[in-house]
Every structure is written in C-alpha cells, then in structure tokens.
C-alpha cells in the first residue's frame, strides 16, 4: 500500500509537529480539530516552523513554502477523512474521549486506511474495541521536538497485521524518522519506559518540597550537559499530558505518591490554565524560560 494522504487528528503540540514533518517530506497532510481556533493556532505554528527551518536549519524557502501548500486544516471530520491513507491521532489522553472518537472516525475512513495512535498512556489493545478494522490499527508514537529526536516507535496489538506494521514502518522512514520496533505491547514504549521514572523522581522531589524545580533541572543540566532538565521537558510535552500520565499511573498502581504528584500538577498548573510551553506558562514562563538564560547554571 502506498501512503499519499495523511490525516493528523489533534492540533496541539504533537499534532502541529507531526503534521509539519509529514508535509516537509512530501505528503499531503490534513489537520483535523473540532475547534477552529485550535486550527488557527496550528496554522500559525506551521508558519513559525517554516521560518525556523529557514533561519536556523538552512532549509530553502521554496521547500518550506512547498510544505505549507501541502497542509490543510478542517473542522469537518467526514471531509478530512476523504482519501486518507494513514491517520495519526494525538487527542487528549482520556479513554472516555478517545473511544467514542474512534467509533466516529471509522464511519468516515476508506476501508483501506491505516489508523495509528500517538498515545503516550494507553496500549493499542485498549482501543481496538472501537476500531472496525483492528488489523489496520497500531501505535505510531513520536517524541516531542520531532526534528531533534527523529524516532518513531511502532507498537501493534496481537491482531495488527504484518502488512500494517510494514507499511507504517516504511511511512516512518519516509518522513525522515528512525523506526523503533516494539515486539509486544509495552506501557510507555521504549522512550517513556526510560523517561517516566526519571520524570516521576523529579516531580516527587518538588511535590514533597525536597527542593525546587530550578535546582532539579540545574542539577540534571550540569551533571549531564543537556540543554534542559525534566521540568523543562515536561513543559514541552504539555502538562495536560503529564497530568494524564501521572493520573493513569496512579489509578493503575494505587501508588499514593503518584496520586500526590498528579494532584500537585492538577492544583498548581491544570486548574490555573498553565499547560506548559503551548500556553506560555508552566513550570517556566515562555518564550524566555529561566533555564535557557545565561547564568541559570550558576
């Protein structure tokens, strides 16, 4: 099967980046969101990405201009689904939202479409009950900052067909990413299996008032030479997603510290509309976060 048209569901941080990556690599790409203002934010982000690629990565304007012409935006799901060969979903990490959406999505897609999810929290098998062709469904998971962390994690469920895996793997390569094959369902894939314990440790230090956000990040950045610490990364991922992961982990494990961490993020950030980079405020304020300023490391 040849992939020509891609449908990206969700216009948040990940949807913005995934759709631009697809368009930059020659794919006709539609971004769907039920809210027009979210699509306008996405459109503006794409313009910003194009400028960034020209000014800091040396990409010719003709190439970014061509990518922008391949991008379209829709609040109408039936028309967005028309002729879509591959779908990638990046909506809120909540089964009560994802499951009915997939039921609706499957009503409009061509029979041949491959459906993929970028979920950071759930296993593909938790969603197959609302997919009409589960053999054509799997996870295709990206990392925030997609052009700086160019991997795509591929994880099927027991009923995913070999053809679906092969086609999706080829697609990942076609958009300039290194495919990481995950042979059986694993919560957190590879990247989050490594990152989540690290982020949990950082959050617990702050939740329990052991130290400050800045000193956690400062310690990590000085010790490893990395450009940001766990809280800077959580802001990039989005604190809505961070809270969903913490809450789902707490529900699954019954761990009191994880519940305390989830409640901390809810009270200090979500309830105040502070969602990280995309809202302009989270653990840090943007566009000039403290961790990027001279002198932060002392």
Automatic annotation (TrEMBL):
Q: Where is the signal peptide?
A: none
Write down the Pfam families for this protein, in alphabetical order.
3HCDH, 3HCDH_N
Q: Name one GO molecular function term.
A: (3S)-3-hydroxyacyl-CoA dehydrogenase (NAD+) activity
Ranges in coiled-coil conformation = none
Q: Which GO terms describe its biological process?
A: fatty acid metabolic process
Superkingdom is Bacteria
Record keywords, A-Z = Oxidoreductase
Q: What is its EC number?
A: 1.1.1.35
Q: Which residues form the 3-hydroxyacyl-CoA dehydrogenase NAD binding domain?
A: 5-184
**Name under which the protein is recorded:** 3-hydroxyacyl-CoA dehydrogenase
What NCBIfam families does this protein map onto?
PRK08293.1 (NF006143)
The positions annotated as site (Important for catalytic activity) read 141
Asked whether the UniProt record includes Oxidoreductase among its keywords, one would answer yes
From the record, give the transmembrane residue ranges.
none
Q: Sorted alphabetically, which Gene3D superfamilies does this protein's record hold?
A: N-(1-d-carboxylethyl)-l-norvaline Dehydrogenase, domain 2 (1.10.1040.10), NAD(P)-binding Rossmann-like Domain (3.40.50.720)
Span of domain 3-hydroxyacyl-CoA dehydrogenase C-terminal: 188-286
Q: What class of enzyme is it?
A: oxidoreductase
């Amino acid at each position: 099967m040849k992939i020509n048209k891609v449908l990206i569901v969700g216009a948040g941080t990940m949807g913005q980046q995934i759709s631009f990556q697809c368009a930059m690599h020659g794919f006709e790409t539609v971004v769907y969101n039920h809210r027009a203002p979210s699509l306008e934010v996405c459109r503006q982000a794409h313009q910003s990405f194009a400028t960034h690629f020209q000014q800091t990565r040396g990409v010719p304007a003709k190439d970014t201009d061509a990518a922008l012409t391949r991008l379209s935006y829709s609040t109408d799901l039936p028309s967005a689904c028309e002729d879509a060969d591959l779908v990638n979903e990046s909506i809120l990490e909540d089964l009560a939202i994802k499951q009915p959406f997939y039921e609706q999505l499957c009503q409009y897609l061509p029979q041949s479409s491959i459906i993929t999810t970028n979920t950071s929290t759930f296993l593909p098998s938790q969603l197959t009950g609302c997919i009409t062709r589960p053999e054509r469904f799997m996870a295709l998971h990206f990392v925030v900052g997609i052009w700086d962390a160019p991997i795509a994690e591929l994880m099927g469920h027991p009923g995913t067909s070999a053809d679906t895996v092969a086609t999706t793997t080829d697609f990942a390569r076609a958009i300039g990413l290194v495919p990481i094959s995950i042979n059986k369902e694993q919560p957190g894939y590879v990247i989050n299996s490594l990152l989540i314990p690290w982020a949990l440790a950082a959050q617990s230090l702050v939740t329990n008032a052991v130290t400050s956000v800045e000193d956690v990040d400062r310690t990590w950045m000085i010790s490893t030479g990395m450009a940001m610490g766990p809280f800077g990364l959580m802001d990039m991922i989005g604190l809505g997603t961070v809270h969903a992961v913490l809450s789902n982990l707490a529900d699954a494990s019954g761990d009191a510290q994880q519940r305390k961490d989830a409640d901390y993020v809810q009270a200090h950030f979500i309830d105040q509309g502070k969602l990280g980079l995309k809202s302009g405020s989270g653990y840090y304020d943007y566009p000039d976060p403290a961790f990027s300023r001279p002198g932060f490391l002392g």
